[in-house]
Structure formats: structure tokens, C-alpha cells
Amino acid sequence: MSALIRLYPAAWRARYGLEFEALLAERPPSKRDLLDIVLAAVDARLVPQVEAAPVARQARITDRLAGAAAVAGGLIWSATYLVGWLVQADGDLSLPILAALGLMLLSLPGTYIVAYARPVALAGIAVAVSLALLFAQVLPWDLILLVPILAIVGVLGPGALALAAARAGTPAGGRWRLLLLTVPWPIIGSVAVAVGFVPTVLPGPVVVASFLPLGLAWIVTGFRIARGPIVSMSTVTTAGGTA
Amino acid sequence: MTDPLGEIGRFAEPSLFILASLGEGPKHGYAIMADVEAISGGHLGPGTLYAALARLERRGLIEALEPEDRRRPYRLTGLGAGTLRTQLQGLSEFAKTGLQRLGDAG
Q1: Which residues, numbered 87 to 106 in chain B, qualify as contacts with chain A under a Cβ-Cβ cut-off of 8 Å?
Q2: Is B3 on the interface with A (CB under 8 A)?
Q3: pLDDT < 50: residue spans in chain A
Q4: Most buried by CB count within 10 Å: which residue of A112, A188, B13, B57?
Q5: ipTM entry
Q6: Contact A67, A225 (CB under 8 A)
């Protein structure tokens, strides 16, 4: 029974879970009912009728570390392009750019932990993926290395985070915006560096104007992550709106 | 005036049955399900029941009472009773018209 109820979003379970479990205990579901429950659980995820109200909790060290990694990544990224443009000294900027991307990726498990307010197995996967990518970035880029890296970055990392977001259940606009901001950009950035699209030599004003917003966005995101969780399931309300 | 059941889409029909069931007094999930199956002659799955209950509660047509053990009874609100009455009067007019036409044709 509990496996069936876990198909529903967390906010729905918090509101209706106990009575639904009592109903299923009172009238064990037939095969037809099982299908009905699965379809209703999909509906509850697609058209949520119950929303969790955001509640405050103290930021944890995991939030702060993830936030610090995001801020550091954003600062290094921004400073690299700004200083490279202003100073115009000879040099290759690939190392600080890769370091910035690595820090951004390393902060992703933190966004997951923030979204869930609890570190579980998926956070471990996300940490492992980020660390593997960080390690891979210090090796020379070539096609043999590029393919598995892209597979890891493109599938496992965001996949774990997307699953994490889906499991969180209720729509929390802030969480989705945060994940949208933080998940695609390091992937795009890593791929762009790998294929040589992102200039790793001295930038001009157009390049700076193009790449500076990413760094600034990560600084803002890092401060948001460091403040603590975006949503908690401890307060659940039914909300008005359309079907 | 908007039709609260019309907004519910595919859950409108089970929702109407649930409102009709609660018309005689508060009931919890299992009792609603058994009663709806008795008055409709059809099957009401537990998933559909709670999808409809959530929509009815969200629109203020029913309200939850204090839980009794793990079971929670629901009852009609004033808006829910009004909506049920309007829906049933509409169906009654429809049935009357349909039967008259059938009689005329026969």
C-alpha cells in the first residue's frame, strides 16, 4: 500500500495519505483500482491540487558550502573575463574558466539538498558526478574523454537532479527556477569549453558582455542557496485555482 | 456565474456523484465510494475518488471534518449544496425534455 501512496507528490501524501491508506486497507484495490491509482497519481503530479507552503528553517552547513561553491564559481568566472579584458596581458584563461565551471557543478548537489532539505542517495550520486567531472577537467580534452564526460554531465548529473525535483512533488516556482538556472548552464559551459566555443584566450568587450551574466547569476544563486531551503513539506494547504 | 463542476473536467461526473452522496450527510472515503457505487451502479476507483475529493475541497464545495482514527469525513458546504441543487435541476430538465421528445416521437 505504501508503495502505491509514494506515487503521489509529497504534499498530496501529507494531506490525504493517511486516509487514503485507511481506505485501501478497508477495501484492498483490484487490478482495475491499481491502474486507477497510478493514473490518479500521475494526474496529481501533473495537475497538483495540494501545495506545500514555504516555511523557514535554519540554513545548514551543506547549504552554506554549496552556496559558497556557487558564489566562488561565479566570482572566478566573472573576474576571469573582466580582468582578462581589462588587463589584456598574454595568457590562457582556460584554467580559471574550468575551475569556475567545476565549482558551479560542485554546488549542484547543494541545490538538490536545498530543494529537498535532506541529503539522500541522489545527493551522493550528484556529488560523485560533480567530483568526477572536476577531476576529468584537469585531464587533456580529447574525443575519447569527451564522450564519457558529456554522457556523465548530460545524463547522470541533471538526471539525478531532475529526479530529485520530481520527487519533491509539489510545484515550488523558486525551486524550479533555481534548478533551471543552475543545471543547464554548467553543462552548456562545459560542452562549450570542450568544443572550443568559449574563448579561453583574452576576451574582448562582446565576449565579456556575453559571459559575464552567467557568472553574476551564479553569484546570486549561491547566496540564495546559502540562505537555506526553498520549500518544506511541514505545512500543507489546498490552494485555489483551476483544475 | 462559472460552473464549479465544469472546471473540474473529466472528474466532473464522479464529483457530482460524490456531492450527491454527501447530500444526505458527512461520510468518509470508503462510505462515499460504497454509496456512489450503489447510486450510480458503476465503479468508482480510489484514485478517482481522491482526485475528485481534492478538486471539490479546493473549490470549497466540500470540507473536511476532524479525522476519526485514520478516516476523515467530508461534508457539503453551502456552495457545494447550491451547486448540487443547480446541477440536479439541470439534469432533471434535460431528462424531462428528452422523455417528452421520446414520447412525441413514439
Answers
A1: none
A2: no
A3: 55, 118-119, 143, 155, 159, 162-163, 165-172, 230-237, 239-243
A4: A112
A5: 0.90
A6: yes
